[in-house]
Amino acid sequence: MLMDILAGLVCGLAMGTVSLGAGILILFTGRDLYERLSRRLPQGISPTIIMLATLFAVPPLWGVFGAIAGLLYNIATESAPGSGLGSYNSVFTLAILILAALAMLPAMALLLLKRRKWGALLIVMNIAFAAIFGWLLPLLANWR
Question: Which of 27, 38, 59, 70 can bridge 4 by disulfide, Cβ–Cβ 3.0-4.6 Å?
Answer without folding.
Answer: 70
